[in-house]
Inverse folding.
C-alpha cells in the first residue's frame, strides 16, 4: 500500500501532500441556511477540486476502491481531476456508478472510500465525496445528452420495481447491456427515498431529475403511479406483460412506531410522513403547494432517533421555524448512525442533541394534541446483538419535555405488499425478501431483489451496491438462461 | 395524465367522473380506492372507486366538494385530465354469503357503499339498503341502489324526500322489528358510522365501516392514516379502509382528521379568491403535458 511515484502532472511532491490541508467545502452560513431549504453545501470550484485531488497519494493498492460498495475507481477519477480532465473523470465514475451527483452528496464516505483512504490514518482523508460531487455537477453542466450511446438491443425485457437507489442503479447498468428496462414507481414522482426522504437542502430535487433524465436518454422507460402488488402483480408482469426478469427494489416501507402511549396524538409523526409531506409534497412551500404542515413556528420539536433520517427531519423542522429543535437518542453520540457531516451541520445550525434520552410516553394537552414527552435517561450497558452498547434506563430519571411536534425516526419494517401477492417468494422471519447476498436472486426464478426490502433500513450506497450486483447477475441469467 | 371521459354533477356539489385508467379498472374490487392528485402543486387525496369497467378501461369516482382539492376537481369537465391516479389501493371488501346484510350509505358515502352492496347481492345475500342525506337533492344513486337491494329505505334529515330522520332511525326500526341482521356495512360521515357502531354493539351485530382518514402515499409507507383499532395503530391504506366498527376509536379518528383544519380553511379561502386563475393554470399544465405526450386534445 505504499504510495508510488507516477507520471502524474501533480505539482505537489508526494511527501508534501500530507501537509496540504483538506480543502473546505464552501457552504451556506449556518444561521442563514437554518432559515431556507436551499442546499447547504455549495460545491467545489474547479480550483478547489484540483487542489483537493492533488492531495491523493496515488497508492499502488488503493483501499478507497475496495471499500466502495459499487467499486468506483476512485484513484483513476481523482487523477483525471488532477489532470483537469473533468469529463473523463465523470465517465470513469459512470463506469461503476450511474448516480454520481447523488452519491457525491449523500454517501457516508467515512464508512467507505474516505474510510479506506490511506491519508485518513494520519490526517484528513482526501475529500472523495466532494470530488465526486464536483465531477458529477461539472458533467451535468457541460454534457451533450445527444452523445449518449445506446447499446444494441438484446430483445430481453426487465421490470424494475421501485425507482429508488437500488432500482435506478440496476436499471442504468442493465440498459447499458442493451436490455429493455421498465421502471415502475408507486408514487407520482421518480426517485423513491431520494425524493420523499432526503430534503432539498441535502439533495436538491433538480439533481435527481437530471440524473433520471440522463437515464431516460440512455433508454430507460419509467412509469409512475403503479403499485406493484396492487395495480399489477409480479406474476402478471412476467406472464402477461412479457418481462423476462423482475428486480424488486421497493425499499423497506413501513414506519416503525415506538408502541408507547400517546402516539396517536396530533403532532406525533413518523419520519416517513413528516419527510414525505415536506419533500415529496412540498409542504414547506404551503400555500403555493396544497399539502399542509402544522404551524409550529416558535414551538418545540423533537426527533427520536440518531440516523440520517432523524437529522433530515429535525433540520427540516428548524427550517420551518421551530423554536427549539431537539434530537433525542437513546445511546450516545458515538453510536449515532448518521453521517458525520450531517451531525456537524446540525450542531452548527443550533439543533440540540440530547443523548442517552428516550421518550416513554407522549402527553396530551387534553384536546388530543401533543403537549410534552415524558422522557427517561439512559446509561450504556453491555454490547447487544448489533455490537453497540445497550441503553439501560436509569430509574427515577424521568422528566417532561415540552413539545408541539415529535417525529419518530427509529427505523422501518418490511412492506408486505409484494411478498403477499407473489406466490413462492421466500421471506425471512421479519418478512424481508430473501435474496442471495452475491447474486441477489430470490426463491423465484427470474425474480431478483435488493436494497432495504432485503436488508432492512440501510444507506443509499448500500442499496446501489445491491442494484449493481443484481444487474450483473440478471445479465448473466439473461445471456445464459441458467438459474 | 388520466383523461376524464365524462364528468357530470349527479347532485348539487357532487360529481361523477369516468376516468380512463385501464390498469386500475382491471384490478379493482369493491371497497378499494384510488389516490389522486389533480395538478402539480396539488395534494394527494383518497377516493373510493364507485364502479369499474375493465373492457373499456375506465373507473368511476364520485366526489363531493368539501375543501380546495375536491372543489378544484369538481371544476374539471369532460375532456380534462387528472395529473395522477394510483390504485386500486386498500383491501377489497369481504364478500361472502352472510345471510341478511344491511348496507347503509350516508350522503356521498352511498357511492362508496354501492359497489360492495352490489357484490354482496351477487354473493346471494339478502340486501337491505338504507340511504340517507340532508335533503332530497343530495340523495344519490337511488336507482342503482334499488337495483342491488331486496329492500331500499330512504331518509332525509329535513323530510323533503321519503321519511324524515336519519339512517340510524331505520336501522333501529329494523332491529326493533326483530329483523335478522347478520352484517351491517356503514359508509358515511364519521358521526353516522359511530352512531351505527354504538347501536349494533349492544346487539352484537357484526358491523363494518369504511374509513377515510388523511392519507399521503396510500401504500403503508407514511403511517399518516393510522387509526386506533382495539387501542393499537393500524393503517387505513393497507389494513383497511374497512374495519370492524366495534373496535375503532372514533374520537381519535375525528381528532386526527381535524389536524390541518387551519391550513385547509386557508386553502379554501385562497381557492375561492383565485379559482379562475388556478383553473387556467391547471388547464395549461394539462396542455403542456399532452403536447409532451404528442396527444392532440
Amino acid at each position: 500500500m505504499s504510495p508510488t511515484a507516477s507520471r502524474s502532472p501533480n505539482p505537489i511532491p508526494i511527501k508534501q501532500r500530507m501537509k496540504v490541508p483538506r480543502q473546505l467545502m464552501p457552504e451556506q452560513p449556518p444561521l442563514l441556511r437554518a432559515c431556507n431549504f436551499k442546499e447547504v453545501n455549495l460545491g467545489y470550484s474547479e480550483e478547489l477540486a484540483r487542489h483537493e485531488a492533488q492531495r491523493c497519494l496515488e497508492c499502488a493498492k488503493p483501499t478507497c476502491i475496495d471499500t466502495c460498495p459499487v467499486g468506483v475507481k476512485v484513484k483513476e477519477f481523482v487523477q483525471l481531476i488532477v489532470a483537469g480532465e473533468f469529463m473523463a473523470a465523470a465517465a470513469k465514475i459512470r463506469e461503476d456508478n450511474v448516480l454520481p451527483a447523488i452519491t457525491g452528496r449523500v454517501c457516508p464516505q467515512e464508512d467507505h472510500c474516505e474510510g479506506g483512504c490511506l491519508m485518513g490514518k494520519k490526517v484528513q482523508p482526501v475529500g472523495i465525496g466532494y470530488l465526486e460531487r464536483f465531477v458529477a455537477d461539472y458533467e451535468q453542466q457541460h454534457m451533450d445528452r445527444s452523445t449518449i450511446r445506446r447499446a444494441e438491443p438484446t430483445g430481453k425485457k426487465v421490470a424494475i420495481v421501485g425507482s429508488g437507489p437500488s432500482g435506478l442503479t440496476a436499471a442504468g447498468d442493465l440498459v447499458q447491456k442493451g436490455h429493455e428496462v421498465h421502471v415502475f414507481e408507486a408514487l407520482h414522482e421518480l426517485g423513491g427515498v431520494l425524493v420523499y426522504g432526503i430534503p432539498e437542502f441535502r439533495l436538491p430535487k433538480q439533481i435527481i431529475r437530471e440524473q433520471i433524465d440522463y437515464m431516460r436518454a440512455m433508454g430507460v422507460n419509467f412509469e409512475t403511479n403503479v403499485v406493484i402488488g396492487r395495480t399489477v402483480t409480479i406474476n402478471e408482469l412476467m406472464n402477461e406483460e412479457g418481462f423476462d426478469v423482475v428486480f424488486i427494489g421497493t425499499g423497506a416501507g413501513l414506519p416503525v412506531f415506538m408502541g408507547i402511549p400517546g402516539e396517536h396524538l396530533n403532532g406525533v409523526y413518523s419520519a416517513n410522513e413528516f419527510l414525505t409531506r415536506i419533500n415529496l409534497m412540498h409542504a414547506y412551500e404551503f400555500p403555493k403547494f396544497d399539502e399542509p404542515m402544522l404551524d409550529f413556528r416558535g414551538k418545540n420539536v423533537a426527533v427520536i432517533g440518531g440516523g440520517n433520517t432523524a437529522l433530515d427531519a429535525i433540520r427540516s423542522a428548524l427550517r420551518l421555524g421551530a423554536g427549539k429543535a431537539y434530537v433525542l437518542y437513546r445511546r450516545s453520540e458515538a453510536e449515532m448512525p448518521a453521517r458525520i457531516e450531517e451531525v456537524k451541520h446540525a450542531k452548527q445550525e443550533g439543533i440540540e442533541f440530547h443523548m442517552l434520552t428516550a421518550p416513554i410516553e407522549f402527553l396530551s394537552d387534553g384536546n388530543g394534541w401533543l403537549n410534552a414527552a415524558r422522557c427517561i435517561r439512559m446509561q450504556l450497558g453491555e454490547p447487544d446483538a448489533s455490537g453497540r452498547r445497550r441503553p439501560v434506563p436509569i430509574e427515577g430519571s424521568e422528566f417532561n419535555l415540552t413539545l408541539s411536534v415529535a417525529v419518530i425516526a427509529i427505523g422501518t419494517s418490511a412492506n408486505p405488499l409484494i411478498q403477499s401477492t407473489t406466490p413462492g417468494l421466500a421471506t425471512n422471519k421479519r418478512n424481508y425478501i430473501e435474496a442471495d447476498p452475491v447474486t441477489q436472486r430470490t426463491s423465484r426464478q427470474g425474480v431478483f431483489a435488493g436494497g432495504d426490502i432485503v436488508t432492512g433500513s440501510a444507506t443509499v450506497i448500500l442499496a446501489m451496491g445491491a442494484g449493481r450486483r443484481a444487474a450483473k447477475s440478471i445479465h448473466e441469467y439473461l445471456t445464459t438462461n441458467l438459474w | 395524465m388520466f383523461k376524464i371521459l365524462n364528468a357530470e354533477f349527479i347532485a348539487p356539489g357532487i360529481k361523477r367522473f369516468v376516468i380512463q385508467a385501464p390498469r386500475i379498472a382491471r384490478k379493482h374490487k369493491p371497497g378499494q380506492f384510488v389516490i389522486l392528485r389533480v395538478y402539480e402543486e396539488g395534494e394527494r387525496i383518497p377516493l373510493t372507486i364507485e364502479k369499474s369497467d375493465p373492457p373499456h378501461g375506465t373507473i368511476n369516482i364520485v366526489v363531493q366538494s368539501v375543501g380546495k382539492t375536491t372543489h378544484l376537481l369538481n371544476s374539471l369537465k369532460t375532456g380534462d385530465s387528472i395529473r395522477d391516479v394510483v390504485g386500486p389501493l386498500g383491501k377489497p371488501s369481504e364478500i361472502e354469503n352472510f345471510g341478511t346484510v344491511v348496507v347503509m350509505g350516508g350522503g356521498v358515502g352511498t357511492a362508496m357503499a354501492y359497489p360492495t352492496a352490489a357484490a354482496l347481492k351477487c354473493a346471494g345475500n339478502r340486501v337491505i339498503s338504507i340511504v340517507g342525506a340532508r335533503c332530497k337533492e343530495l340523495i344519490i344513486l337511488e336507482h342503482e341502489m334499488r337495483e342491488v337491494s331486496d329492500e331500499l329505505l330512504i331518509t332525509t334529515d329535513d323530510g323533503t324526500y321519503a321519511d324524515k330522520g336519519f339512517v340510524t332511525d331505520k336501522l333501529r326500526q329494523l332491529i326493533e322489528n326483530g329483523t335478522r341482521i347478520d352484517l351491517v356495512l356503514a359508509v358515511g360521515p364519521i358521526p353516522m358510522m359511530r352512531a351505527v357502531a354504538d347501536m349494533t354493539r349492544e346487539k352484537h351485530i357484526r358491523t363494518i365501516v369504511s374509513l377515510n382518514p388523511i392519507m399521503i402515499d396510500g401504500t403503508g409507507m407514511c403511517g399518516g392514516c393510522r387509526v386506533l383499532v382495539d387501542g393499537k395503530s393500524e393503517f387505513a391504506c393497507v389494513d383497511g379502509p374497512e374495519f370492524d366498527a366495534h373496535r375503532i376509536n372514533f374520537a381519535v379518528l375525528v381528532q386526527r382528521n381535524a389536524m390541518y383544519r387551519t391550513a385547509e380553511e386557508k386553502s379554501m379561502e385562497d381557492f375561492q379568491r383565485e379559482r379562475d386563475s388556478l383553473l387556467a393554470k391547471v388547464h395549461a399544465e394539462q396542455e403542456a403535458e399532452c403536447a409532451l405526450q404528442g396527444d392532440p386534445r
